[in-house]
Amino acid sequence: MNKRTYGNVCCVVNCKNAQYNTKNVRFYSFTMKPHKVEQREKWIKAVRRRNADGSLWQPNKYTKICSEHFIGNAKSEHPLSPSFLPTIFL
């Protein structure tokens, strides 16, 4: 089974949120837009995942993070907003 079989799945380690088992949770993609490279890099650092070899994990075009990792349960596009970056992790 691959993750896309069930729709969106949160990439955060130990987060069990997925489209098939949650309600009122949104899933956000890691932006691929060239003018938002800085935001993407900050999201990657915030998630704090590593590959098996210890290198920094990189999301792909299907990778999602759920709204529960953002203050107010939603991401913001405003760089000064506390919800611009995911900051809520268990």
Automatic annotation (TrEMBL):
GO terms for molecular function: sequence-specific DNA binding; zinc ion binding. It comes from the Eukaryota. Keywords: Cell cycle, Coiled coil, DNA-binding, Metal-binding, Nucleus, Transcription, Transcription regulation, Zinc, Zinc-finger. Residues 1-89 form the THAP-type domain. It is found in: Nucleus, Nucleoplasm. GO terms for cellular component: nucleoplasm. InterPro entries: THAP1/10, THAP_Znf. Belongs to the THAP1 family. This is THAP-type domain-containing protein.
